[in-house]
């Protein structure tokens, strides 16, 4: 917003990509503005642990402005973007304010998508924000509470049936953790129901779980899920979701709790820019992550469709967003310095997913791991990626106590109707 | 709900009083049902620390059913009470379910009250539940975010003015902590404002703060507050609260954030019972905490008006509720055993309040403390009263880190409008 000649970079989104870009640009003599509609950076890979009452919200979220505290060339703004004026080079906020830029980085992520069935959302919430996580936690815990008070057996069974749609990492991790919530954490605390008898059903349209892994690890994960007690239904697309159940493969399953982990839709960055997007709403970007025709605009992370040299898309994972942020920052710095910008080459670090607290699958390409050792590697890696000593310490202790006792510390039903009614439901 | 001849005790409310009653009754061969509309017990004395982003929700709240996990004679129900059928001896829940009792303990607490000005609530929220705390946290943090983006100086000043109404322990603790939030935690993180210039105004109708303490400690607390930078306005009742300010003593103060800590109203237990209550809605109980004419119904804690031998009321503090719960449990056990019930004699343990993180006042009657030593005693006492090793450890570490660095770990704006608009406000 200053009128001087310093090159102004505006970054929209304080997730993995945007935050990385801001950190890499800091100290380069540029005028950096980081805009997010949330005040916090979120470590999404552990969001399912908040949804299942294992971790608390502040374990995996940090105020963005505290993360760039010492970097005086970064200005953090809480605001929602409504559009981009590409000609005037201004980001337009919802309240009408305009933030001018010389370079723009859009790193606004994705939300869950219902493939044309938006009417399913109230009955099958997805998991992308802290509020999503506490809402799912409320539903899970309320289902057990209501089952305890339900005299009708069929309705009690429906309350104790939990359906997860989509067997990617989030779906697999949720399914495993819900079984453990019921079996280890809630066992022995109810008088009319046995929480360990809860059914957890994981429905996947493809013919295997964890499609992004090699088939061998998918097979192991399937076996580990079934051993935990998860009912895995492969090769069935869900065709109906209503307040009392789901239909898949022609079968109806009565359930009061459905979680959606089956697909994502990019943020409306393509609409703000008025440019081409794919079916998932992702902006089709050049190999250097800029928007065709607008070399001053970068789109990175889940909201971009970037193709690798072999034609495969860069995957929608946190590490790809970070690499994108790093690349955009380096390109802007090189341009300002009059140097040749680097070429973007995405390096896939690997895929990780846990199945409960005893097993995981890891595919680093050069190294494939499964089982309890993989679970430890996963745990250590995730603690490493958390920010700050305190969060690492608290999450480590929490996981250790859970491993030993099965108890969960964040089993709070909040923001819901205290009478036990479903929010959003008739 | 069983039809056998075991004496059935129903306890409504899982706060300090109800939980104590349940724990004392457990193992006595009775059939105990504990009903709460929340699934968690809350350590209310530290709620102001959640509201000011120092602690996170799960630090001070525990699932009620996990607290009575091993006690198989206690059944925990999540439900809202709608009434009591005194003749049929049944508690009526909101969904129409009826829970029969032989003895009933109502321990349903209090909410904040606006002395006939309920229209003030949207502009001056109170602090009694976890949701209240996260809502106040959101308002406090949003005010700084909005001030950072506000070009108009007068409006920026109003955004950076925080008003607390009522200088009891909650009001005093909030005022001191908000100053520290601004001065120690947010300092250096903004570019357009200086958070440490925020004004914190504490308004009290009486002529001193902390009325429940001896005047000497009130005077010390006043001095400590002023030293911290809190503007204390004594002897002024607030006469108007609207979305843009408050009026007290004929003066208008422009502010966007008002917190109400000036009065409470008992839960509607008197209405459920159809019995006499005082102006604050408290049920006037016999010296043994039973309801006149209904020796099988006890009302304890903040929702009861119990008089001590000298005619002074038992105060509305957590320890009084615990003593009430203990007494009701002992009385029921004695009656079932055919023994003489004990007499209730309230013993006042003392009063504690902190002023920021460097000072506190403590009045144990036989011992009066103030200053940094009192703050340590307060801290140790509160950690002792938390439940579980993990919570004690986490709160200790959090406080220690805050004492050293001033940083706060739970600075999350959640459940609010991401665009930065006020919820509840036009």
Description:
Chains A, B: It comes from Paradevosia tibetensis. Chains A, B: Residues 348-407 form the External alternative NADH-ubiquinone oxidoreductase-like C-terminal domain. Chains A, B: It is an enzyme of class 1 (oxidoreductase). Chains A, B: InterPro entries: FAD/NAD-bd_sf (IPR036188), FAD/NAD-binding_dom (IPR023753), NDH-2 (IPR045024), NDH2-like_C (IPR054585). With 426 residues, chain A is an alpha/beta fold. Among the domains of chain A are: 8-37 and 79-112 and 264-336, FAD/NAD(P)-binding domain; 118-261, FAD/NAD(P)-binding domain (3-Layer(bba) Sandwich). The first copy, chain A, has eleven helices and 25 strands. In chain A, strands 5-2-1-9-21-20 form a six-stranded mixed sheet, covered by helices on one side. In chain A, helix 4 (130-149) runs antiparallel to helix 5. The radius of gyration of chain A is 22 Å and the shape is globular. The termini of chain A are far apart. In chain A, 52% of the residues are buried. At the A-B interface, strand 5, helix 4 and helix 11 of A face strand 5, helix 4 and helix 11 of B.
């Amino acid at each position: 917003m200053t009128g001087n000649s310093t090159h102004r970079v505006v970054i929209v989104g304080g997730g993995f990509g945007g935050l990385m870009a801001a950190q890499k640009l800091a100290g380069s003599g540029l005028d950096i503005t980081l805009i997010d509609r949330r005040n916090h950076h979120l470590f999404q890979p552990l969001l399912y642990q908040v949804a299942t009452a294992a971790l608390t919200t502040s374990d995996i979220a940090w105020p963005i402005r505290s993360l760039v505290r010492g970097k005086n060339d970064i200005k953090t703004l809480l605001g929602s973007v409504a559009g981009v004026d590409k000609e005037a080079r201004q980001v337009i906020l919802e309240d009408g304010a305009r933030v001018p830029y010389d370079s723009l980085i859009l790193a606004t992520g994705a939300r869950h998508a219902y493939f044309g069935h938006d009417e399913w959302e109230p009955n099958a919430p997805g998991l992308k924000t802290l509020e999503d996580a506490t809402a799912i936690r409320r539903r899970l815990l309320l289902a057990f509470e209501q089952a305890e008070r339900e005299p009708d057996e069929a309705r009690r069974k429906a309350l104790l049936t939990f359906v997860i749609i989509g067997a990617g990492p989030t779906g697999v991790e949720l399914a495993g953790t819900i079984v453990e919530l019921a079996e280890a954490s809630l066992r022995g605390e109810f008088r009319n129901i046995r929480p360990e008898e809860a059914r957890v059903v994981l429905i996947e349209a493809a013919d295997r779980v964890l499609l992004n892994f090699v088939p061998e690890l998918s097979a192991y994960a399937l076996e580990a899920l079934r051993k935990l007690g998860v009912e895995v239904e492969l090769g069935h697309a869900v065709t109906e979701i209503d307040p009392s159940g789901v239909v898949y493969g022609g079968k109806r399953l009565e359930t009061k709790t459905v979680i959606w982990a089956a697909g994502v839709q990019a943020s409306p960055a393509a609409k703000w820019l008025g440019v081409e997007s794919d079916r998932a709403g992702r902006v089709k970007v050049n190999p250097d992550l800029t928007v065709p025709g607008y070399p001053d605009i970068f789109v990175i992370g889940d909201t971009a469709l970037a193709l690798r040299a072999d034609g495969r898309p860069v995957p929608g994972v946190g590490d790809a967003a970070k690499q994108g942020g790093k690349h955009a920052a380096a390109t802007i710095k090189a341009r300002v310095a009059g140097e040749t910008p680097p070429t973007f080459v995405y390096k896939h670090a690997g895929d990780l997913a846990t199945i409960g607290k005893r097993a995981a699958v890891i595919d680093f390409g050069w190294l494939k791991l499964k089982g309890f050792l993989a679970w430890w590697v996963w745990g250590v890696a995730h603690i490493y990626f958390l920010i700050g000593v305190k969060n690492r310490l608290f999450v480590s202790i929490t996981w250790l106590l859970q491993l030993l006792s099965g108890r969960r510390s964040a089993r709070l039903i909040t923001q819901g109707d205290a009478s036990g009614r479903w929010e959003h439901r008739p």
